[in-house]
Specification:
This protein has 310 residues and is mostly helical. It has one domain (81-306): Orthogonal Bundle (MetI-like fold). Helix content is 73%, strand content 4%. It is built from 14 helices and two strands. A two-stranded antiparallel sheet has the order 1-2.
Amino acid sequence: MTLVEKAPAADREAQAAISDRSRAERRMGLLLSAPAVIVMLLVTGYPLLNAVYLSLFSYRLTAPEDKRFVWFSNYVTALTDGLFWQVVLTTFVITAVTVAVELVLGFMLATVMHRAIFGRRTVRTGILLPYGIVTVISAFAWKYAFDPQSGFVNPWFGLGDYAWFSHRWSAIFVIILSEIWKTTPFISLLLLAGLAQVPRDLGEAATVDGATAWQRLWRVTIPNMKAAILVAVLFRTLDAWRIFDNPFIMTSGQQGTEVFSFLTYRQTITRTAIGLGDAVGVLLFLSVVLIAAVFIKGFRVDLSQVRGDR
């Protein structure tokens, strides 16, 4: 057998070894996550099944004797209501803008934390400080800051008595701004872990070969931290899609700022329409599952490539 004939056989053996390693890691991952998954199913399984069950009824807490089985009528009511799709649009805009901006800012902050030579702990603590503040407190702080009477934003920028929360898009802008300020450190923390996995010798080799900083970023750094980027974007997208605190405190859903979670709250708690509220809640749950499936299946990252295996 010649060397040319031996090469394909060696490649097949290497691929088989990588495949066995991937299967072993997948099996280990399932075993490690199984206890947490079982506990989560036990804790959330009954409320979820009960919500699905109640969503099939016309049921109000104020009139429990009028509980009627209506099949999927509540879902039809929600999906054919223009308010529902306005809520979906508002939630989508807030999610898309916040995640996109946070990804860019988070990467910049992660780079600063990764390259800091002096005072590294102080720099990281300062960057992560907003994420440690309770969301409710943060929302009230931003609400007061943009208040036309007592806030400091209007005097600083000479905006007079402009009422930010009396207009839809300006209110959404403030909500987005508060979300970016609060959760960008979370993105930067995840991306910092990804930067730590990028082999330094690859960047040095690219520099020796004459690659510019931009080329090293797109051809060396980002390809080697795809897994961290995917995890960061997935977690933040799911979190932003379920946003509740900021719209609830700043606008109470007024001026067209109602979001998905707030619609579920308003139907269930304010209007006591348990059946319709649970139907909206189930639709929220299904949308979260769909988003997660799209990210995991559509943007799948080969972890063996991330590790540098070939």
